[in-house]
Amino acid sequence: MLGHHYTHTFLETAVASVNAGCNLELSYGLRNNVFMHIPQALAMGNITLQMLRDRVRPLFYTRMRLGEFDPPAMNPYSSLDLSKVQSPEHRNLSLEAAVKSFVLLKNVRGTLPLRARDLSGQRLAVVGPFADNPRVLFGDYAPVPEPQYIYTPRRGLELLGANVSFTAGCSEPRCRRYSQAELVRVVGAADVVLICLGAGVDVETEAKDRSDLSLPGHQLELLQDAVQ
């Protein structure tokens, strides 16, 4: 609220926040934060002790329900170790979730899904800055990926045994430099073309918003050239 000029000081912000019902400040990593001024606000009579208790109660109620204060022996998660991370069971569940969460807006003549048995003798072109760049496939707040478990579109299609050609067209999502001639060459020799475009964390994250939803840089030009 201070950054939006709704208040002028951290003290004012703390009072306004608590009065509005806010009971949690995400201030990790900050040397100075808003809610550290709550004792001062309480001493000045801007907020009451009962109000503070009302704000704190749901926080601790939730922590209790989560078992945070239980003995370790009562917590089923205490027995988990790193062997569970990227276990086959969890990877299969992630794959199932990914497959079931795709949104297909249009499927002319049943083009999708691509099946390995239908790709024999077909020439596939995989193009775009998201076609074979593992780094840009993960969004904001994603965990640190393990390279051996990352399958880019290019890598996944090559596993099908198809004849795959590739060009990024742009080296990164901002697509400031676009290799049109290379794209036209690769696409022109293909039977099936997959175009992988988007934004990624290089373009937008929390606190780094965009004013429109247009494709970055030359990506739209890349798409139009591939279609033509």
Automatic annotation (TrEMBL):
<dbReference type="InterPro" id="IPR017853">
    <property type="entry name" value="GH"/>
</dbReference>
<protein>
    <submittedName>
        <fullName>XYL2 arabinofuranosidase</fullName>
    </submittedName>
</protein>
<dbReference type="InterPro" id="IPR036881">
    <property type="entry name" value="Glyco_hydro_3_C_sf"/>
</dbReference>
<dbReference type="Pfam" id="PF01915">
    <property type="entry name" value="Glyco_hydro_3_C"/>
</dbReference>
<dbReference type="InterPro" id="IPR002772">
    <property type="entry name" value="Glyco_hydro_3_C"/>
</dbReference>
<keyword id="KW-0326">Glycosidase</keyword>
<dbReference type="GO" id="GO:0046556">
    <property type="term" value="F:alpha-L-arabinofuranosidase activity"/>
</dbReference>
<keyword id="KW-0378">Hydrolase</keyword>
<feature type="domain" description="Glycoside hydrolase family 3 C-terminal">
    <location>
        <begin position="103"/>
        <end position="226"/>
    </location>
</feature>
<dbReference type="InterPro" id="IPR036962">
    <property type="entry name" value="Glyco_hydro_3_N_sf"/>
</dbReference>
<dbReference type="InterPro" id="IPR044993">
    <property type="entry name" value="BXL"/>
</dbReference>
<dbReference type="GO" id="GO:0009044">
    <property type="term" value="F:xylan 1,4-beta-xylosidase activity"/>
</dbReference>
<dbReference type="GO" id="GO:0045493">
    <property type="term" value="P:xylan catabolic process"/>
</dbReference>
<dbReference type="GO" id="GO:0031222">
    <property type="term" value="P:arabinan catabolic process"/>
</dbReference>
